[in-house]
Amino acid sequence: MPPRDRQPPSQEVATVNEDAIQRFGGSYVVARKDSFERLLPEGVDGNTFVGLAMAALFKAPKTAEVAMRNPESLIIALRECAGLGLMPGTDEYALTVRKGAVAGIIQYQGHIKRMYNFGTVQSVHAEVIVRGERFIKQDPLPPIHDVADWNMRDTRVDIPPTEAGGYAVHDSDDEPVPNLTGAYAFAMLDGGRCSRVVHMGRAEIMRHRAKAEMYAIWDGPFGASMWLKTVVHELEKWVPKSSAFQAEQQRVQVAMADAPRPRERTAAPRETPVDAVTHDAGPFVPPTPDNARGAGSDRPTVVPAEPQFGRRKADEVRLPSDDAIEAEWREGQTLPVQDPPVPEREWPDVRRPGEGQQ
To answer: Are 197 and 127 contained in the same domain?
Structure first.
């Protein structure tokens, strides 16, 4: 049996209240409704999407607290959810906390919904296989699964040895007995065709379980749901997609690429105080890409100036062109314009050509 030492992390008490969640949601979630609508499929209301996202934060204050500390992770999860055509905080797409950030998880109901959206699927079938039941694959037809009584099936992952009857295979009476032996999933396509039948035995599913962060979900009373999710997730890769769905996915990818991305946060270099820059500030320090501007700031950094020029900003350092030098030299060779003599009557009268002639 795989180890059972991974347990869910301790539930810390959230310190945020509903007013803080409301203010945060208005600034980060509601304000980006137009961005989410560009990713949602046609006919899906953006107000409904935003409302469900806000409801998910109200229902999980711990998730909301992590989202306030790392809002970019929440926006990324919501954009992924919108691009997949799912609704956040529902049985289709869950918002949870992973490694100090908000992460989105597609539930197996979300995988099934996406397959119906492919435009080629009529029905999706998935089931676990209990010990003692017969399962036969008969590709390209649907498989055969013989069950004695569907109403009396016990779908627990493991059962105590006292309830195992003749299936007890362990020497220790405390060791549970495997009850589920596998799971499968397939889809019926348009025209009555059957998709590929995805079948996984217990050993393969346990390898998926080993990659999980929490074993309690897999080993709990609803562990069969995780087995179903595993095979349904794999089935989605094999179901054919209609041309209309593929065109929609291309539109979503373009919208994802055109969306503004969060600006990277970098520490701004230390700036020289303005009051410290004087005529005797020391040797001139030429501006470089590292000290010319502070990261993320429109205000140029003040660079210590040369003594003969006093204060100078980095952006004002310019070398004169040859034309400017020649123009300055010509201006120095021009004689100054003299003022007219006083009184003005000493100047001759100005007449137009032909004026005053008889």
So the answer is: yes
